[in-house]
Amino acid sequence: MLPRLKGLFHLDLVRSTKAVQHLTTFVVAGISTILITRLYLALSGYPQIGGDTGLHVAHVLPGGLLMLFAMWLQLSYIGPGPRPVAALFGGIGFGLFLDEVGKFVTSDNDYFFAPSAAIMYVVFAGFVVGAHFWRRRVPLSDAERVANAAHVLVDGLAGRLSENRRAEVLHSLDEVGDVEGAAEVRRLLERIETRAPAVPQRLEGWWQRVADGFARVSRSRFALPVMGVLLFTQVAWALLVLAWLTLSDAPHGVSVGGVLLGTAGSVVFTTTGLWQGRRRGRRAAVESFQRSVLTSLLLTQVFLFAASQFAATAGLLGDLVLLGLVNADLARSRRVRG
After folding, report:
1. Which positions, given as ranges, span the membrane (predicted)?
2. Helix, coil or strand: residue 58
3. Does a structural domain hold residue 5?
4. Which of 185, 214, 243 marks a domain boundary?
5. Which structural domain, as residue segments, surrounds residue 97?
């Protein structure tokens, strides 16, 4: 009975090699939209669309329309082409939607509900960390890589594939084993004519350059000390914000204890990583650094956002940069080990 149920609910989904880029686009677009929206509303005195007519068009409505547009792109076009644009507009729409979370969870529709920033942060941080563990838990199989190459081939057969994208896919096929269909996909890719990259491919190219930058930094012999310094800088920043909260009249409540607990955990993991780098090697050190970053993301920054709203945005950006560095280093070590 159990195998039958497992087969019934099995979705047979093939993962994308560009999932991390698209999810990153979605998260960055969403967070940027929230910050820009709140800044604009504060500077403009919180105007209402609709004026004195008695109508108020909440920005959750254009957010929903943008998410609908992202779904329309995905459902109406084939191939990987629409995904970067769908991730961008879907992230903007979700940011506009999530910005009004205070109205959804309070009986008086309070846009300025104090814990709203923490709720937004937890949603995005959980999304990032969940996507990270999802990809790391089970790496893409060779068959999935060939399937992704065939997906890119759709653009090529329609005359919409750039030379850089083709070269990237051919390189990925070089890394797979003797998988059924790989040779056929390669022959078709080598025969098709390419064209100048379109807007979606340029979006992918920007993120690829960011990933390449992380990879270059992680290969440096100074990478481990730099990561350690940045991690301790994050701790110092969190303590400075905490000190400002304590000395000011801003309400902070349980946030002090949460920030102290998170920073203590980050210090322990960072110190352990520097020590393990000398005794057990680079990978053990970077894995400990990763625990330090995740502790900051999922504990320290949550309490900072709950207490100081968007004053902790710099800490979030710093953690995302550090997560990119440690993930690039771990990915490189897995390739070398494999």
Report:
1. 20-41, 53-73, 85-105, 111-134, 222-247, 253-275, 296-317
2. coil
3. no
4. 214
5. 15-137
